[in-house]
């Protein structure tokens, strides 16, 4: 066998020997580089320090885009509910509302958070 005949197959084998395929990465990063566990922990920590009357823009600057939002008019108040992921329920790769904490704002000011505040609406 000439040296040229075995050189190409040998190079192909060596070039593939460093390949690694991740099948199930439980710590998969979000688009911003943090993993979902860190993200929900940070959300919980921030929400636990909130006080009523905090402007919605302040919350959004800290927590970013909400996972879900609801907006409606109630009496003369503009109501917006922002849902941020704070706890894990199932490993399906999707964030659902039951994995989020609702933050309730009336006229741009935080009036409450959590299930009781949301259900009170």
Automatic annotation (TrEMBL):
<dbReference type="InterPro" id="IPR021534">
    <property type="entry name" value="DUF3192"/>
</dbReference>
<keyword id="KW-0732">Signal</keyword>
<dbReference type="InterPro" id="IPR037873">
    <property type="entry name" value="BamE-like"/>
</dbReference>
<feature type="signal peptide">
    <location>
        <begin position="1"/>
        <end position="22"/>
    </location>
</feature>
<protein>
    <submittedName>
        <fullName>DUF3192 domain-containing protein</fullName>
    </submittedName>
</protein>
<dbReference type="Pfam" id="PF11399">
    <property type="entry name" value="DUF3192"/>
</dbReference>
């Amino acid at each position: 066998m000439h040296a040229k005949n075995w050189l190409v197959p040998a190079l192909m084998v060596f070039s593939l020997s460093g390949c690694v395929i991740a099948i199930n990465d439980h710590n998969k990063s979000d688009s911003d580089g943090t993993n979902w566990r860190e993200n929900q922990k940070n959300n919980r920590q921030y929400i636990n320090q909130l006080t009523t009357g905090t402007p919605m823009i302040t919350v959004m600057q800290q927590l970013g885009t909400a996972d879900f939002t609801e907006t409606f008019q109630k009496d003369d108040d503009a109501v917006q509910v922002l849902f941020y992921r704070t706890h894990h329920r199932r490993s399906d790769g999707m964030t659902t509302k039951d994995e989020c904490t609702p933050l309730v704002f009336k006229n741009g000011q935080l009036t409450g958070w959590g299930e009781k505040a949301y259900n009170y609406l």
